[in-house]
Amino acid sequence: MTELDVSWQRAAARLLDDLVAFEGACFVAPVPATPVVAPASDELSRFRAEICQCSRCALAAGRQHFVFGTGDPRARLMFVGEAPGADEDRVGEPFVGAAGQLLTRIIEAMGLSRDQVYICNVVKCRPPGNREPQADEVAACAPYLQRQVELVAPRLIVALGRTAAAAMLQTDAALHALRGRLHSFAGVPVLVTYHPAALLRHPEWKRPTWEDVKWARRELDGVVL
Ligand code: URA
pLDDT by residue (tens digit) across 169-185? Predict the structure, then answer.
């Protein structure tokens, strides 16, 4: 067993203490290193600079930060959430509050770090009072997400929660109806799971989330580079 296998199993066990009882699942195939190719980070940074003063919808007026996204610009795995909350708006980075901490632990349980994945939201500015983003706000931001996916070109997207899934898959279906199969956005396979904030309110959804996480990891392991 390699060092990576051991550290991954430790991380998984730690998460499972919280998520579900450990059931012996483990992923022994390490994720291959990201190939060193053209500096996608430059293009992504340029794109960020182009759009960060966006005023396409009313959310622009109330924001402290335009929360673009963070992580490896060539990540093989991308997480897409709903919209920044108060913490994210203050810091300018997605998923840094309580839900973000749970997301970090989920990522670590997959044998990865936040630096190795890409994290962003469907909507880049905070909706007031943490309400759900409205249809016009989602529509205004949609081309930004589309371009981010094109630039990062991940092998797999994990949609966190119904808003992210609905925006990417253009559907009104309930989240439970979208789980358990692969969808597609901009030519990239999409797996749908619960939003980490929902897991904080509904611990009974942690087990199905863990099943989705294991599936996502298997999908990545199955990728032939
Ligand atoms: N919830 C989200 O959907 N995104 C964040 O960045 C934080 C919380």
Answer: 999 999 999 999 999 99
Residue whose CA is at the smallest distance from ligand 1 atom 7: 95
Q: What is the CA(68)–ligand 1 centre distance, in A? A: 12
Fold of domain 3-27+36-221: Uracil-DNA Glycosylase, subunit E (3.40.470)
- HEC string of the chain equals CCHHHHHHHHHHHHHHHHCCCCCCCCCCCCCCCCCCCCCHHHHHHHHHHHHCCCCCCCHHHHCCCCCCCEECCCCCEEEEECCCCHHHHHHCCCCCCHHHHHHHHHHHHCCCCHHHCEEEECCCCCCHHHCCCCHHHHHHHHHHHHHHHHHHCCCEEEEECHHHHHHHHCCCCCHHHHCCCCEEECCEEEEEECCHHHHHHCHHHHHHHHHHHHHHHHHHHCCCC
Domain ranges of the chain: 3-27+36-221
Q: Provide the whole-model pTM.
A: 0.85
121 in contact with ligand 1, CB cutoff 6 A? yes
